[in-house]
Amino acid sequence: MSFTLHGLAVSGGIAIGRAHLMSHATLEVSHLVIAPRLVDKEIARFEQAIERVRSEFSALKGRMQNASAEFGAFIDLHSMILADPELSETPKQLIRERRCNAEWALAQQMELLVDQFESFEDPYLRERSYDVRQVVERVIKELVGQPGRMAVRTGKGTKEENLIVVAHDLSPADVIAYKEHHFAAFVTDVGGSTSHTAILARSLRIPAVLGLLNARQLVRDKEMLIVDGTRGVLIVNPDERVLEEYRLRKSQIELERSKLRRLKTARSATLDGIDIDLHANIELPGDIAAALDGGAEGVGLFRTEFLFLDRGDMPTEDEQFEAYRKVVKGMAGRPVTIRTFDLGYDKDLHPEKVLGGRLQSNPALGLRAIRLSLSEPKMFQTQLRAILRASKYGKIKLLIPMLSQAHEIDQTLAAIERAKAGLRIERTPFDEAISVGAMIEIPAAALAVGLFLRRLNFLSIGTNDLIQYTLAIDRSDEQVSQLYDPLHPAVLMLLAHTIASAEKVDIPVSICGELAGDPTLTRLLIGMGLRQFSMHPAQILAVKQRIMQSNYAELAPLVRRMLRNEEPGKIREQLDKLNA
Ligand code: PEP
Ligand code: MG
């Protein structure tokens, strides 16, 4: 039966492929009684599955050696869990004693282990129950013939390029693992359009629809799917006529994309000659290839916190230094803006382990980003030293997330000075004149922007959080996503005020939130006076095309008029006019 589900369009394009369910496989395990003569065979089947997952882990580790240290640590942990006799031996006893099937024996043993982990006082150990489940799921999938999400193989005759991941929820850490894969698209039941999961989806450059509510329940493994990431639509079991229509649209989109590629080396300037800098947002050093491919003139936002995720420990100063140096060298003289870690909120570091067990009741308003850095001076110094050391190899700008108060800025600048002083004593070279800037992503920062302009060298507006905090809408909650409105007059006022204030004192300001990569907002932002954009690399050429078709002198008065309006309907009408 064919049916259609609607969700949030978070990453454009069309994918046609087979459903690849990311499931809690253990929920689907059935209990079978094995004939006594088949017990040994069942135990051998169990051993083979464990062995296959073990070699899958070591193959993955080998492939990722150059990619990122955090995956190595992640795989090590999972290998250790797999090797634990409680998982790899005890189920064999259960199979023999109870004459049950291997999946069932493993699932029973997993429940016991998970209960044990969950009863621990230490939050870090409690959290490890998750890892136990993940490892067991992978073995169970082997047993039932559906390799798991990080499996090297993807099932008989199906290439990853033809698979569409269907999951209830994916964390940013899950999605970053997909950078190693080539899935056609992914869809989830939950998540907002500027959640980090969505941002990563865009950086994978595959169509994605989030917030489909119950797709994971309704879609069956291997069913034919169409994902329309531009309209936020998932079509399950389409008929031949619909398939034909979407194949046509897919090839039209590909044609448009290849036309856009011609703009890669074109000057990014308006018709009346105003240059606009287009930079890329990246999450891992491996993303620089995409940034250069998109024609980025620099990295406007390197979200370094992704180097910290999915591992049980902190990256060392040298590990971080290597990652930053790789980016700077890869960008070959182009500027690279490195943001100090924005951990907390949805990019959870398991702070319990690192931060002595402090848990937060409201992580979006809690110890996140610079607040966490200032409360963990050692961790912050390690990162600052690594960034400063890398500044010897190219043009690095240092960006600080989530600042809101003058004393935080002063404390941050003092911390940077401390890191510099240490390096000077050691005679380690770094860029003495490194620029330091702030993310403007809290309404207080936008309103009191003078505090920032007097103390810092540049600003970068993080509209994802600025909108979240201005409108009190959780950016990762699909239930309120219809209220997440970049065109709310309050948001526009904050943007215009920040841009104009920076312009007055000649301090560079850019936007690095998702808004910067939306070509329907390009003219509005240019009209406000914005001259620097940073976005996921896949959007750069579409935004450049819009810039090249725009005339600042015409836009400026229209945008001024638009900003005097408070009526949402009128604002949208004026935006349409601007884009006409
Ligand atoms: C933002 O808030 O707009 C931003 C760019 O930072 P992040 O999305 O990483 O929170
Ligand atoms: Mg932010």
Quick overview of this protein structure:
The protein has 580 residues and is of the alpha/beta class.
Explain how this protein is built.
The strands form 2 sheets. An 8-stranded mixed sheet has the order 1-8-7-3-4-5-6-2. Strands 9-10-11-12-13-14-15-16 form an 8-stranded parallel beta barrel, surrounded by 5 helices. It has 3 domains: 3-22 and 150-239, Glucose Oxidase, domain 1; 25-143, Enzyme I, Chain A, domain 2 (Orthogonal Bundle), CATH 1.10.274; 260-439 and 452-463 and 509-579, TIM Barrel (Alpha-Beta Barrel). The longest helix is centred in the N-terminal third of the chain and has 26 residues, at 39-64. The protein is globular. Helix 1 (39-64) packs antiparallel against helix 2 and helix 1 (39-64) packs antiparallel against helix 4 (90-98). The two termini are 41 Å apart. It is of the alpha/beta class and 580 residues long. Helices cover 48% and strands 13% of the residues. It is built from 24 helices and 16 strands. Strand 4 (163-167), helix 7 and strand 5 form a beta-alpha-beta unit. The structure holds phosphoenolpyruvate and magnesium ion. Magnesium ion (MG) binds at residues 401, 441, 462, 464-465. The site of magnesium ion has 5 residues, from helix 19.
